[in-house]
Structure prediction request, 507 residues.
Amino acid sequence: MWTPANQLERERFDKLNRMQEMGIAAYPNRVQRTHTAVEAIRAYEAVENENHEAAAPVEVTVCGRVVRQNLKGKVWFAHIEDGTGRVQLFVRADNVSEAAYTLLKGEIDLGDFVQASGTMMRTRAGEVSVLVQDFAVLAKALSPLPVIKERVTEDNQVERFGAFSDVEERYRQRYADLAVNPDVRKVFRDRAQTVAALRRFLDGAGFLEVETPILQPIYGGAAARPFVTHHNQLHQDLYLRISFELYLKRLLVGMYDAVYEIGRDFRNEGVSFKHNPEFTQLEFYQAYTDYFGMMDVTERLVAYAAEAVTGSTTITFEGHTIDLTPPWQRITLRDAIRQRCEIDYVDYPDAESLYAAMRAADIEASPKDTWGKLVDTLLGTVVEPTLIQPTFILDYPRDISPFAKAVPGDPTHVERFEMFVGGMEMGNAFTELNDPLDQQARFEEMARLYADESDEATPLDEDYLRAMRYGMPPCGGCGIGVDRLVMLLTDRSTIREVLLYPHLREK
Prediction:
């Protein structure tokens, strides 16, 4: 049996007991809603605008959570909210039964869900309201929600503040956070619109949406440490996928020209403002194209999503005005690094000499890193934070890009790009390697280079190589972090703000 933890909960629990003694169901089985809050207001305004004095009254039954209430003598005002918005309830003691008025006068708390039936009207203050004739409780809230205060700004907007002194508690109690913060609810509506826009664009471009395994016998397609689980009946270790890549490219072998998947990936790595162990990824692959074709699709896709969610291809992120209109800036990785730190990494053809040059320039790096990883460190340290406007960085070291074709005439670089916006890496793409013999050599090369680094291991996937040997068409592929894209489109500085349930340490 639940026990109230404090005086406020005790008072609410006592009210629940009194309601039960009066024979009032605090959690009834049935609801009779006829209008949402917004529908009720619009229905009244439509009649009001017709200016017909003889027009029939607008009768409604609305439901929602009580977010404000005020009792003045024999008049009770309240605002209730549902998923669409807010509407005012206006109750006169002589308009409802004595039992109903006793209930709302003494037993209703902020946070309770209620149902009200009546006629729409406009109060003397000008607010469209429900003149209530019947009233019922739908769910008694036993714990008070975090306190929200409201103030009216100079432009007559209602501003809310004051909930959750501990920001992390918002994530632990996301249900309460959503209940009291309309801005947070909007973020996740925008997230849903973002995903819908990505689907709409790719479907319209001829891509087929597919689903690939989450539990995989061999993980691959990225450099990351996997989560390991075990299938009891099969006596087999399995891995939560770190990427969809190798399974999606198998489908190109199977004669689909263009495929995509939006789903969860899992990487057993650090948590930060832009990393969560469980995250949403979009990957799409297309036959008969290359990384230039992927650039074209990617910039149009992101611009389309931005316009669908924000109404414009120009957005604001962390105080920066960012124009996502294609075409985006394109620059090679080598040139981008040279412009910002005067190190031309091509002049340092091995890891030892490049590490020395980086240390001489006071750039932190690990002496154990390969040459390619040192180049990637240069990118992340001196280039990435400066890439506010959308930019494609092209041509990456071979030893950190095992699934990309080599740049013609340059055995040390491959046709790979990463996209950056707002100082963050947003996506990764290749001209996909479709030579099975070269691919097997890459697997073996990666095994040698990263024999002692589980985060960088790329297991040899013999089934994937077998699929390639049947013939894989020339193709391009791209992966985009959906969570980071939502961060960008909703102007949120941490990934936790765009995940309903981010991973948190135990209390």
